[in-house]
Write a structure and sequence with these properties.
This protein has ten helices and 17 strands. By secondary structure, it is of the alpha/beta class. It has two domains: 146 residues, serine acetyltransferase, domain 1 (Orthogonal Bundle); 116 residues, UDP N-Acetylglucosamine Acyltransferase, domain 1 (3 Solenoid). A hairpin with a 5-residue loop joins strand 16 and strand 17. The termini are far apart.
Length: 281
């Protein structure tokens, strides 16, 4: 057993850590034993466990868990990039979300992580011309997780969607690698255009809660969009934008805002009268 664990840790450290944490979770909370065993410990691979977990969440009276799982398993068998992206997403959540202290948590409990993988399977279906089934995945993910991502959208790896409530990402949207976004973010269009009509988000961007990026605009790498902002124009790389409509209010503040998750616009504190000291105007 010891050699097997060592070998697994060398070949697939993310899966090895998840299995170890799963065993610890069962020991600490036996009442969750059934969930943890069925979702993780009964599986021989990370891909199998993730396919099972997503299919259990998306199942309904209209589509059985078995059919959904077969689709997820088929997607993983055909495209190893799905598993690679899912591992990168888990690491992103663990590194950036202070509420996440174990790899097991996104897989079992975090709907943002589960929703992004449901999208990845839907995107795999879309690319193979199975548009109606892809839309079924989209519909169920929206109903279950409150995350509505069109299966034609293109999303990179290392993605963190924190809290993941009321997320909307449109059909022609493109999201790069290592992007972080909070709840109520919209990457949408501005009307009834039928062509390329949704935002293009470069690598390393941080999108604050409630922010809306509308139209075929480009958001440069490692920029920050402040909470509640409405972005209607291109954003240069390494800048912070805020407001309605959004305007540049300063630099990004660090080399990797999506990793740092710093959403304060340079505010350092206040004096005894309550007036803000320092920060942007």
């Amino acid at each position: 057993m010891g050699k097997t664990r060592t070998r697994l840790a060398e070949l697939d450290p993310v899966w090895a850590r998840i299995k170890t944490e799963a065993e610890e979770a069962v020991a600490q909370e036996p009442l969750l034993g059934g969930v943890v065993h069925s979702s993780i410990l009964h599986h021989k691979s990370f891909e199998s466990a993730l396919a099972y977990r997503v299919s259990v969440k998306l199942t309904s009276n209209e589509m059985s868990e078995q059919i959904l799982r077969e689709i997820c398993d088929m997607a993983h068998a055909d495209d190893s990039g799905l598993g690679e992206a899912a591992r990168a997403d888990i690491m992103a959540v663990h590194d950036r979300d202070p509420a996440c202290d174990r790899f097991i948590q996104p897989m079992l409990f975090f709907k943002g992580y589960q929703a992004i993988h449901a999208y990845r399977v839907a995107h795999w279906l879309w690319q193979r011309g199975r548009h109606d089934m892809a839309r079924f995945f989209q519909m169920r993910a929206s109903e279950v997780f409150g995350v509505d991502i069109h299966p034609a959208a293109r999303i990179g790896k290392g993605i963190m969607i924190d809290h993941a409530h009321s997320i909307v990402i449109g059909e022609t949207a493109v999201v790069g690698d290592n992007v972080s976004m909070l709840h109520s973010v919209t990457l949408g269009g501005t009307g009834k255009e039928e062509e390329d009509r949704h935002p293009k988000i470069d690598d390393g961007v941080l999108i604050g809660a409630g922010a809306k990026v509308l139209g075929n605009v480009h958001v440069g790498r490692c920029s920050r969009i402040a909470a509640g902002s409405v972005v209607l124009q291109d954003v240069p790389a390494m800048k912070t934008v805020a407001g309605v409509p959004a305007r540049i209010v300063g630099e990004a503040g660090c080399a990797q805002p999506a990793v740092a998750m710093d959403q304060l616009l340079g505010v350092r504190g206040s004096d005894e009268s309550g007036a803000t000291t320092g920060g942007d105007d």
